[in-house]
Design goal:
two-stranded parallel ribbon, alpha+beta, 273 residues, 6 helices, Carbonic Anhydrase II, eleven-stranded mixed β-sheet, 13 strands
Amino acid sequence: MKHLLIVISLLTLIVSCSSKNKKKSATLPGTKAQQKAPKKMLSPKSPNKLTTHWSYEGLFGPELWGNLSPEYAACKNGKSQSPINLIWRKPNEKRTLQFKYMDEPLTTSDTGHSVKVHFASQQLASISSSIYSLQQLHFHSPSEHTISGKHYPAEIHFVHKNSSGAIAVIAVMISQGNSNPHLDTILKSIPSQKNKINSTKLKLNPGQLLPPIMTHYSYKGSLTTPPCTEGVLWSILNTPITASAQQIKKLKSFYKTNNRPVQRLHGRTSTNY
């Protein structure tokens, strides 16, 4: 009888140990069950879905943007691309640019392609009898547009949209000269980490980055970055604002070269206002 009880006890112990080992093996690293989990996080519906990479040099540079993705086809095939070379001459038409810009808490970011200032308030501009709202401004260095073949150290793009979704960009050239306190405020607030937004308590009125003289060139072009969407109304002010050599150096420390080369006109002309 004692031998029978001992045998039963041993069998019970063996079965118990076998059950525990099965449970442990189901949670070990490297099993199929665990390998499948990350796939759910990387599904196509993820909000972090990557877009086609592009840059300003090498195999992903401007000359090859149109080959990187079907969405970028306009960069290669478009006939109204930007930037362009503008020929200086006296204004021969009248058109007034009007701005209703106001102070707003400064919000900046480094997008990985340019330094950007974001706007949430109703920053308004009247361009060609249409009201546009300022979405953001960003910097290119050296300038993208040229005036009579001349590049400026930098160029600011004030990107606007109207109620129909049409895009209008005001471009302001930066030349080396006196220090610009408003530009200084922006440069000091740019976050060190790319794609991170820095919201500050500092105030900025975008009108403080406009020159006092509003004579300008106007033409129909495109976005100067992929997807190079056409139908953009450009207004390039021919009076630059100034920045000190140190400020320009600081701006170039983010991106030494982030300008698209000048594009062919394909019969287009610009109007001087």
